[in-house]
Write a structure and sequence with these properties.
The chain has 294 residues and is α/β, with parallel strands linked by helices. It has helices at 8-25, 38-44, 65-81, 126-138, 152-164, 189-201, 213-229, 262-271, 280-288; strands spanning 2-3, 33-35, 54-56, 91-93, 113-115, 172-176, 205-209, 234-238, 254-258, 274-277. It has a five-stranded parallel β-sheet, with helices on both faces. A three-stranded parallel β-sheet has the order 1-2-3, with helices on one face. Strands 4-5 form a two-stranded parallel ribbon. Strand 1, helix 1 (8-25) and strand 2 (33-35) form a beta-alpha-beta unit.
Length: 294
């Protein structure tokens, strides 16, 4: 049983490495992933974990500690329902946000519980640290890198998208200005507008994620208003269902995309030249797909 790191970026960066290490060290082992949003987890790990091997749990990160500890007990009951036993099961906790980085107890015995302690030097990345920790647990000396396992259909969709909008062979930059509610990460909207303008001036096609939630979409609208005032070619593209049939000019400038699933976004990133964004989720996603990120 692997407990989700919590944030999607953390699952891409750490949980994916843990899954790969376990597969190599214990190839006959059944892996079950426990997390708060299995819809997203199923998308990024679709090709490696069986459909029925996801346990969705609810947790409130803002609840008082007593309530969170009770939540840990309910999670353990879900593990037992899925077959957890002290004889042949272990739990791996990648310093999960769900369990408050080891503060909330989960199972009765420590012998079945492996907690990721970041003892490696501080100048090592989290990926390097989790590799070194897992080497000590399983004795497998092999460097593993983060990876996403989105369904093949998402890459086929991206191929069709890039063909439909004549993006093949062009400099395509994907941007996501989302910050998961922490706007101290963000620079000014004026900066974001100038960044997009400079890329378009260099003949790049910019694909901007419209964002989620009222505040993100409002910021996007302000960016679009600023760009339209400078006569930039801005086109809205909704890919929540199928690829739209609208026609674009030879140099569209900016495509603003709305999508419903992270798998589709991963497909678009996999074909891009560069990813730019504030939040680590997109950066980890791009890195796991072998793309440069800023």
């Amino acid at each position: 049983f692997i407990i989700s790191r919590g944030p999607i970026g953390g699952d891409i960066n750490l949980t994916s490495i843990i899954i790969q290490k376990i597969q190599k060290a214990l190839p006959e082992t059944e892996i079950i992933l426990v997390g708060g949003n299995t819809t997203v987890l199923k998308e990024i790990f679709a090709g490696v974990i069986l459909e029925n091997n996801f346990i969705e749990i609810s947790f409130d990160r803002e609840a008082i500690l007593e309530e969170q500890i009770k939540g840990g007990c309910s999670i353990f009951n879900r593990l037992k329902e899925k077959g957890f036993s002290e004889e042949d099961s272990i739990v791996i906790d990648p310093s999960s946000h769900i369990l408050k980085h080891g503060l909330i107890p989960l199972i009765p015995s420590d012998k079945n519980y492996y907690y990721f302690t970041m003892t490696a030097p501080a100048n090592h990345s989290l990926g390097e640290r989790v590799n070194e920790w897992l080497d000590g647990v399983f004795g497998l000396k092999e460097e593993i890198y983060s990876k996403v396992y989105v369904a093949k259909e998402n890459f086929i969709f991206a191929e069709d998208f890039y063909t439909r909008f004549n993006l093949r062979g062009k400099l395509v930059v994907i941007m996501n200005f989302g910050v998961r509610g922490d706007y101290s990460k963000a620079l000014t909207i004026e900066f974001e507008i100038k960044l997009i303008q400079s890329l378009i001036k260099e003949k790049a096609v910019v694909i901007l994620d419209r964002g989620w939630g009222q505040k993100e979409t409002e910021r996007t609208e302000r960016i679009l208003d600023g760009l339209k005032k400078s006569n930039a070619n801005v086109f809205e593209v909704d890919i929540t269902e199928d690829i739209p049939t609208q026609n674009l000019p030879e140099n569209p400038g900016l495509l603003v995309v709305r999508y419903a699933k992270i798998g589709r976004f991963a497909g678009l990133v996999s074909k891009a030249s560069l990813y730019i964004g504030y939040d680590s989720m997109g950066q980890h996603l791009a890195g796991s797909l072998g793309k440069s990120a800023v």
